[in-house]
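Render alpha-L-fucosidase in 3D.
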Amino acid sequence: MKNPNFVLLLLVVISLISCKEKVTEPEAVGPVPSQRQLAWQELEYYGFVHFNMNTFTDMEWGEGGESPKNFNPTNLDTRQWAKTAKEAGMKGIILTAKHHDGFCLWPTETTDHSVKNSPWKNGEGDVVKELAEACKEFGLKFGVYLSPWDRNHPEYAREEYVEVFHKQLEELLTNYGPVFEVWFDGANGGTGYYGGANEHRKIDDATYYEWDKVTKIVRELQPEAVIFSGGNPDVRWVGNEHGFAAKTNWSPFTPGSGNLQNGDEDGTHWIPAEADVSIRPGWYYHAREDHQVKTLPHLLDIYYKSVGRNAPLLLNLPVDTRGLVHEKDVEQLMKLRKQLDKDFAENLVTDAKATASSEAGSNYSATNAINGDTKAYWMPKKEIIKSNITIEFDELQEVNRFVVQEYIALGQRVKSFTLEGKINGEWKEIASETTIGYKRILRFDLVEVSALRFNITDAKARPLISNIEVYKAPLVMEAPEIVQHKDGRISIKSYDNGLEIYYTLNGEEPNKNSKPYSEEFLLQDPTRVMAVAYNPGTNSYSEVSNIKLDIPKKNWQVLNENADAAKIIDADENSVWTKKGKLPQEVIVDLGKTYNLKGFTYLPQQSRWPQGVIADYEFMLSENGKQWKKVSEGEFSNIKNNPIEQLIEFKTTKARYFKFVGKRSADDTEVLGIAEIGVITE
Ligand code: FUL
């Protein structure tokens, strides 16, 4: 190397290379995910199965003294669970191998309180094994829920039990193949059977279970598995059981901060949230909830507020006493799948052009954000935080979904961003939001744009954006909801904006030639209201809603109780009035004037733990409020299992006053409970 020009050239080349290298090495910011956390995050949507002793005792929290003889599914088919989950688009299933009552779904060596002593398969069965195999067959991941709290075990709260708990974990993680998640519940209620002691036992959750040891066991036996809760090494609870993550959702989290919902911007550890929710009110199967399987709009909301807000969705299916996912649940799951497939059918960025306000070199261009490769990302120059990507479409596009992902392997950075649309040549703000994380999905009303501009307005360091997708999701064509208010106002709502609503009051099928609905209207007389949603864009109709409304409750009054009792005639199904005290108990209502009555309706409380659901009743009428005539008496059959609105007809009778008597409640508690009561006029 005698030639000085050559040396100079070499130096230039070396410095160019090292410059480039500096660019290729963006530094991590804050805590970063482990490989197992990254793999888990990409699953996005998987199923929970609550199936165990509680399924057979019709409980949510068994006490621990239940006999194994109760456990006897008639038609258990884990392949049906796996097939359902697979077709629903889920990536795995987590099974309640042991819930708080302590019953083990596998023939554990640690206790007799297991399938071994149940009549199911003469004690030869193993639900954990059957499900692990079914998951494998259907290409699903398999996970286990093992309740630390054990209301059956005699040694619970003492040292011996901790060993039992660890041993159970070892069995589950050794004998059933790969496990992707181990779920430890936080509940530690206190009272229990505890081998017959039937007492209250307290433990310190932070120390009793020896979480460090638990983590060690999991890491050794299943290095790929993430741990939910249980000292929070990998995944934290989202802070509610609605399946909703917060809009601001940091995966960094400082254990002990209590910020389960939002996480901590400057959290010390990478502990992302997981959103768990049941497809029904309860986690376990109860026939009484067959009519309360979540609707498509509700499930969609859950999806967008979990997966769309940086939290994988763990959706629970309460397997029934047959040992099957109930038909109604399957139906709703498939509705959700179908709609999501439609929502994300065609990614409109594929033919678009992306340019950035700043790029840290050609390896980090804006194109990386729209090329479908989530390992490549857009990155602005080092000192730049406020920056943007513009996506220009070939032709005008109608859009209503925006998906964006950060390259989280190097930390979660974005604190806030906005989305603008170029509408008629002018930039207009569509959304202004906070965090992104692994994935954020925005839903907004349909806009026609020639371009979109995605602006990072604040971040912990320059943003790394690995993916952007844009869609035009079809409007959800659910039958409109017709609501009658107490004063007789009628409102009709469709799920999505952008749909037209048409209705009739004469019993004829509505269509776009019927009356368009634009605002609430008044109805004083009993009327059949039918309504339909219409999408002018696709020239298609929803199903028709069809309800027979009776007289409004405007001038009604409860005569024999305090003001709170007005909740039973406020036309709001969510407000409930209960009265404790020995049954029978009665309520008297004045209708304000005399009608020809031919029936009444009774709606019990619709919540997860309904109170005072009446099973035996009497119904009386009076013209003057003094002389009463009994017009109906009997039992609301099956109301315990199926607490829907009861409709009872009787011989037409003239009356201004009615008296509803609750004689016995379905669970034999001394409570009268009413969500809503109504009459049927002639
Ligand atoms: C809760 C438990 O107590 C429920 O029974 C259910 O298992 C749910 C997923 O977690 O904390």
